[in-house]
Amino acid sequence: MDRGNNVVELRNVAIYHGDDTSRRGAGAEGELVLSDVNLSVAAGETVYFIGRVGSGKSTLLKTMYAEVPLLEGEGRVVGMDLRRLRRSDIPYLRRRMGIVFQDYQLLDDRNVFFNLYDVMKATGWRREAEIRRRIDEVLTLVGLDNKAYKMPHELSGGEQQRLTIARALLNAPRLLLADEPTGNLDPVTADGIMRLFHEIAESGCAVIMSTHNTALIEQFPARTILFSKGRIKEIDLERSLEADRSQDVR
Known about the structure:
By secondary structure, this protein is of the alpha/beta class. It is built from eight helices and ten strands. Strand 7, helix 6 (187-202) and strand 8 (206-210) form a beta-alpha-beta unit.
């Protein structure tokens, strides 16, 4: 089912709200959130998820990183079959991807360097020289190379988000998932974060981002998937917005 260089392949997927990893394999299903989900994402591609709150954007992202189990349909993410995934496989799946949360989830009692260092130790890195070299690389990539020994509370909101992106990039992921990454940021800072995501995609890492900010999508256009009434469909956002504006003028 995995075609060419696609990092995400979903076929005839249905997703239920209330599923969690503790119920994996039990056959129990909660409320249907999405049905007939078919989606392919290639390496180096940027894809936006848009739609109302509660339309299933975050739930689909959680399915991709196995927070919500896939119980119906076929799904492969970064080469791993979501239907055959065992609980013990989940850490290996997540090491192949990066996850960026809106609320940062940083360790407040550790500085920037150790927020990254501890993640690397936990994911199997052993050689100190390699750890330090990789931390230097990702901090330079996100523009925090002079902030390594700052505490999280000493960083601005944009810098904290850049740190979460650096953390997500530590293991050179094939896929980056971002859930409303600019939701708490001012427009100028959000613009910088979007530029960073597009640079990451240009390096070959696929980026899937949920967002409500259509103005940013207009500024940084890419494939856009609309979540509505329990289904997803690809749309031409620019054309849709132009049609809405025409209706407003009439």
